[in-house]
Structure formats: C-alpha cells, structure tokens
Specification:
By secondary structure, the chain is of the alpha+beta class. The chain has 13 helices and 21 strands. It has helices spanning about 15-25, 40-55, 80-85, 120-125, 190-195, 230-240, 290-295, 300-305, 325-350, 355, 375-385, 390-405, 410-420, and strands spanning about 5-10, 70-75, 90-95, 100, 105, 115, 135-140, 145-150, 150-165, 170-175, 180-185, 185-190, 195-200, 205, 210-220, 245-265, 275, 280, 310-315, 320-325, 365-375. Helix 2 (about 40-55) packs parallel to helix 13 and helix 12 packs across helix 13 (about 410-420). The two termini are about 30 Å apart.
C-alpha cells in the first residue's frame, strides 16, 4: 500500500466563492456576476456556505456541484478502480482516445504520406488485415524529427465524451479530455493543457490556459542528419521525402461534441506516439502488455505490477477473520509470476493481447484520472471511507482527503465534524 498515490491535476480556483455565487443566483433576480467584485473572500464564503447551506440539512445542495477537482490515482489495484467507477454522482474515469473519423498518418514506400480514419484501422485490425506492415508516422522525441514505426494494436475504447479542438491553422482534432497531446510544455492531457472546465453533462464552461500543440507541418533542414541512418525507419524518410520536424500551433477553440465511439492505437517501441489529424498524440496507456513482459525480463519488480495486501490479520463485514502470513503471500507472488510467464508464452504463440491478459490475476496495479465535484466527492467519501468498506478503498479516501481539505477548507471542516466515517450519504 505504500505505493498508493493520489496527485492533484487541476481544480476550480476559489471554489467556495463559486458556490457562494451559485447560492445567491438561485434566489436573486439580478445577475450575480455583476456583483462579483463585492463577493466576500474565499474564507468568508466558506463560512456562509456552512451556515446557510449545510447546517440544518436545508436540502438545496445544487450549488455544490459547480466546482470540479481532477485527481490522478496511481498504483491502486484494479478492483479499487472498479469499485470507485460504480459511483453515479459525478465521479468519472476517462480513457484517452480519439473519435472514429480521426485521420492517422502513414508513409508509403516512396516517402509520401497518406491518412486513414482510425475507425477503419480498427475494422481492419479485427479482420486480421496486415496493418503492422504499414509505416506509421511517429515523432522521435530526441531528435525532433518524424520517423516511421509500426502499429502494435488497434483498440475500441467504447463510447466516451468527445471534444473538438480547433487550431489556429484551421485543423481540428476530436478526442477525449484525457488524451495526451504533445504541447510546447511537453506531454499533457488535453484537459490539463487547456485548463478545461466542464459541466457534469460535458459542455465546456471555460478554458483557463493557452495551449500550443505540436504538428508535423514544417520541413527540417537537410544539411546534416541529427540521427543515425542505420534503420529502415529513418532511411525511408531520408531518401525519398523531406524530413519533417514538429511545429507548434495554438488551440483557438474547444467545443463538446457529445458521446461518440472512440478508438486508440498502441505503437511499437521506441516512440509511443503517432500523428492524428496532423497533431502529435500519445498512444494508448494500457494497464497490461509490456509491463507483464518487463517482469520476466527483470526490468520491473513483480509488486510494481501486481498488488497483494501486506502481511497481517484481516476481517470483513461478513465476519471472516484470517491471517495473511508470509508463506501465503509468497505463494500468491509465485502465482503472479507464473501468470506472467503464461502471458508471455501465449503472446509468443500469437494470441491476441486481449485474450492473453485474461490469464493475468485481477488485481494488477492501475492508474486512472478521477474527476468529481464537491457534492459527489463527499458522497464517495461517505461510501468508501466507512469502517467496513474495502481496505484499499479506504486508503484511497485517506489520500483524497488532504486535497479536499486544501481545496474547500470550510466545507471539509463541516464534513469532518458531521459526516466523516459515519456512513451517512451526503446530500
């Protein structure tokens, strides 16, 4: 459990003032925005929220849903993520992915580029057509020059909220808020790069940061070669076509497109990126695959990939009591290692990764991004921090709590005094 981590990605600034404004608009004929210069400070707004909204269970808690916080949860077991994602009150887990009509860039034998929609690539992949033979354009992050690589896998990511980015040059990219883009500040999720705030139903409320994404529209100098010419991937672009370098282009608009079918690619080593609608994007983050093989090759520790509880005495709400001894834990570690070898064996035999990973123990460690508002986060704490909740879920809440306290201190103090670990459902 010492690996468990919860880190802050973004949060609505001055959240208690935001709630204060929403409270007053509910009962005012005037436009409260016009009075914002006369609003109390953040601390005073917190006091007003507690006295006028929370104390006495007045029953009107909609204003608590406006401020949003986004947290990155890491190294938790898959079962914890599965529990948390069942919440129906604004806690969300988004995979990074692209809309089906997104054009992925390839390079042919003569060095000319061409594109194909990612949905078509997925259809070909599922039909066993030989996509790995196609030369996929990728970005060499060391040289700053585009090269080619190969597709390792194409996957459907299900129906997700999709946003359209419009660039200064007129290009657009349709993706989820958690798809990682190469920006002038490095790799960032789309939402983090733009400081994106959205309503619960997905519509864009505002963006708070300027953002420029890297595209492939500028020819590189040819006077010298900053990279070795020892591979087919570099020779193709060098001999037959001008080499391209990345070029930043500003994002000018973000709009919500609604729920759409989405897709993503996994790219072979060493560069895990590709070009989508002219923009450099990261390939899929998959919670199995290479990590499993790294364990066998000695590149990762077994417990960096799999979660097992520490030694100790345990009980549950059904009254079970047992000791998890060193011998029992070692048996389970051995089982996890055997599963890694079986996974590698099946991959070597040509099994699909989605088939082979069914052999892996359920509680592989997983990272995810979680977004919540003040109201839904209290609801999560109510359910998952009570004494009989799953231990790992309680540990997650322990790590969320300091972020909640720092973000909305007055509300957190009220919650601690009235509801914390009392298994009462928040309003």
């Amino acid at each position: 459990m010492d690996r468990f981590t919860v880190a802050l990605i973004s949060q609505t600034p001055n959240p208690q003032q935001v709630i204060y404004g929403a409270m007053h608009q509910d009962y005012a004929e005037g436009f409260v925005w016009d009075e914002r210069d006369r609003w109390p400070g953040e601390e005073k707004c917190g006091d007003v929220i507690v006295k006028q909204l929370l104390q006495g269970n007045r029953g009107h808690y909609g204003p608590l849903e406006h401020p949003q916080i986004v947290l990155n949860c890491g190294w938790f077991p898959h079962s914890t993520m599965q529990q948390i994602r069942t919440h129906r009150v604004g806690v969300s887990f988004d995979v990074q992915c692209l809309a089906g009509d997104t054009e992925v860039t390839f390079v042919d034998a003569s060095g000319e580029s061409y594109t194909r929609p990612i949905a078509d690539l997925y259809a070909d992949w599922m039909s066993d057509r030989k996509l790995p033979r196609h030369q996929l354009r990728v970005f060499n992050e060391k040289t700053g020059i585009f090269e080619t690589s190969h597709i390792k896998c194409v996957m459907s990511s299900g129906v997700q909220p999709v946003y359209r980015l419009t660039l200064q040059n007129g290009r657009t990219l349709d993706c989820t808020r958690n798809h990682r883009l190469l920006t002038t500040e490095g790799w960032q999720t789309m939402g983090d790069a733009l400081g994106l705030y959205t309503a619960l139903e997905g519509h864009v409320l505002m963006t708070t940061r300027p953002c420029a994404v890297m595209t492939n529209s500028i020819a590189a100098e040819t006077a010298h070669s900053p990279y070795a010419l020892g591979t087919t991937t570099t020779l193709i672009s060098t001999l037959h076509a001008p080499r391209l370098k990345a070029h930043p282009v500003s994002v000018t608009q973000v709009q919500y497109l609604g729920m759409q079918s989405t897709y993503d690619l996994e790219v072979k080593d060493p560069w895990h990126n590709f070009v989508a609608n002219g923009v450099v994007v990261h390939n899929s983050f998959r919670y199995t695959g290479q990590r499993i093989l790294d364990v066998i090759e000695g590149k990762r520790e077994l417990e960096d990939v799999f979660y097992l509880r520490p030694l100790g005495s345990y009980s549950d709400r059904q009254g079970k009591k047992y000791d998890y001894t060193a011998d029992l834990r070692q048996e389970d570690l051995d089982w996890c290692l055997q599963a890694c070898h079986r996974y590698a064996e099946r991959i070597h035999q040509g099994f699909a990764e989605e088939h082979a990973r069914g052999l892996i123990p359920f509680d592989i460690r997983q990272h995810w991004v979680m977004s919540a508002n003040v109201r839904s986060l209290m609801h999560l704490l109510d359910l998952r921090w009570k004494a009989d909740a799953q231990l790992e879920a309680q540990k997650l809440c322990e790590q969320i709590w300091p972020h909640f306290q720092a973000w909305v201190p007055a509300i957190a103090a009220w919650y601690e005094a009235n509801r914390l670990k009392k298994a009462r459902l928040s309003p």
